[in-house]
Design goal:
CATH superfamily of the largest domain: RlpA-like domain
Low-confidence stretches: 1-26, 33-37
Strand content: 35-45%
Order of helices and strands: HEEEEEEEEEEEEHEH
Shape: rod-shaped
Mean pLDDT: 85
Distance between the termini: 139 Å
Number of domains: 2
CATH class of the largest domain: Mainly Beta
Length: about 240
């Protein structure tokens, strides 16, 4: 009976030692893990904020054209991040704060909605934009051999196919036009019989001028007032 009691006592002692050892190991492991996790880093980064683009319709601009009124500028924000480090590994990241340093500036663009009027030259196939359109009373003229004004125009330019006479009070001299059935022209001459909405078209010969007669034609004021009409018509007539 005494031996049995002694055996039980020893067994209990061993169990107590074993339990204590396991508890101590687990507690040490937990403490070590907590110690490792206590290693945290506060990180501050800057991040760009994209700007928005605002488009405004504008009927003073031609359709298909745009105008940048204001350039867009990205904004900037600062982000504070808390990182938990375990050994040499980042185990978690938490954004703790965001501060806008600079607000983005909106980009503003005007987009044209004004209709664009064009005419296609029946001789060259070139498309021209025009700003005004008139109905004019057309006639034709030519140089008169041995006349003192032969080949001379009011603008100082010589006569050529593309030279037209107008009332300078209605259409200023130097205005670039397109005349239906005649082509690109310059208002470079005047005449005593030319009044108001009359227009006189230069022809190479008297017979062609007579054949033309008198008729109403549509005349367009071209948007491009820099065209060298003399050079253009000379190229077309080659």
């Amino acid at each position: 009976m005494k031996r049995f009691v002694k055996f039980v006592t020893i067994s209990l002692s061993l169990f107590a030692i074993s339990t204590t050892s396991v508890y101590t190991f687990a507690n040490d492991l937990t403490n070590n893990l907590e110690s490792e996790l206590e290693n945290s880093v506060i990180k501050l980064i800057e991040e760009s904020i994209p700007f928005e683009t605002q488009i405004i319709a504008d009927n003073s601009l031609k359709k298909g054209t745009t105008l940048i009124v204001q350039e867009g500028i990205p904004g900037m924000k600062e982000i504070t991040i808390s990182q938990q480090i375990l050994g040499d590994q980042i185990v978690s990241e938490i954004v703790t704060n965001e501060t806008i340093v600079a607000e983005p500036v909106v980009k503003i663009i005007k987009e044209g909605t004004k209709p664009v009027n064009t005419i296609v030259c029946e001789f060259s196939g070139i498309e021209y934009e025009f700003t005004d359109k008139y109905t004019m009373h057309a006639s034709a003229y030519t140089d008169i051999e041995n006349a003192p004004w032969n080949g001379i125009t009011a603008s100082g330019l010589p006569t050529f196919i593309g030279m037209v006479a107008v009332d300078r009070n209605v259409i200023p001299l130097g205005t670039i036009l397109y005349v239906d059935g005649y082509g690109v022209a310059i208002a470079g001459d005047v005449g005593g019989a030319i009044d108001n909405w009359d227009i006189d078209l230069f022809m190479h010969s008297y017979s062609k001028a007579m054949d033309f007669g008198r008729k109403n034609l549509t005349v367009y004021k071209l948007a491009d007032q820099t065209i060298d009409v003399q050079a253009l018509r000379a190229h077309e007539n080659k």
